[in-house]
């Protein structure tokens, strides 16, 4: 063998020889390709065949902006400090359960530079109220309703900001197709836990959440669809809006083959993500701390835990000044002021005309 060439084993009993310059060029090409890879948001990999995959894992999390005191225009520090976890080779994709941004229009530029560009797996967002501003998300980022298959499982991203939390029209049709799929597991993702609003056991459990104004169609239209799924198929509905007074980063409740799950970060010590693993159809969960804390099993964060636990997040009066600054410097506040003045002026003009 030429001393300027190196012999590599490409497969069993097969060898290739490369020169030093060829190795250097391959290395440069690899680095260029690596730096050009970044997360595609709510884009289904249509060209890849995942049907024969029997073992895979993925990450789920929610509320990545943390809380209102984070005005950096970036995800909360506990998320940014764990990019190595998010990019771990174990995970095939990532699902964010809404409120990824504090203000999507203002934050998207920084997120693209400092967050999305550093994530190398497919990234799906089930939008929350902070992620939508008119049609901005759909116009600039991606679809808000997405279905994809992975292995023998079907995954469905829903937009619970549309129709005040009800699932209607195209989304309801997509849910019907999902429930009629020939699969081993069904994973449904949404920001709002719309499954809890009309449930007597869970109603009011997630305080300070965005809820429907005029009621929703979960009990009437959605639950019957899910209950029509074959008993051998597990349905996991994951949401990411726990509320500001949550006692933990996780919630779990099951009824037959239907499993309700919540997970969200808030920029505090208890923050964590959820690792989901599928092994020949069997699904398991592992809460993963973002701050090195010891966490219980997901199933431990059940109704009994939530009823007995004392809220960890209490109101801090020292933050009043910060909350006021955030309110007065946000464009929505001034939109409201302008609209109020406009309505007041119109009302005065109408009254003057009536008096005449």
Question: How would you describe this structure to a colleague?
Answer:
The chain has helices at 20-36, 77-80, 83-86, 104-114, 136-140, 169-179, 194-197, 218-227, 303-308, 320-328, 331-355; strands spanning 5-11, 14-19, 55-61, 91-96, 123-125, 146-150, 153-157, 185-190, 234-239, 250-255, 258-263, 272-279, 282-289. It has 356 residues and is α/β, with parallel strands linked by helices. It folds into 3 domains: 5-35; 39-308, Purple Acid Phosphatase, chain A, domain 2 (4-Layer Sandwich), CATH 3.60.21; 318-355. The protein has a 6-stranded mixed sheet with strand order 6-7-8-9-11-10, covered by helices on one side. Strands 5-4-3-12-13 form a 5-stranded mixed sheet, with no helix packed on it. β10 (250-255) and β11 (258-263) form a beta hairpin. It is globular. The N and C termini lie far apart (106 Å).
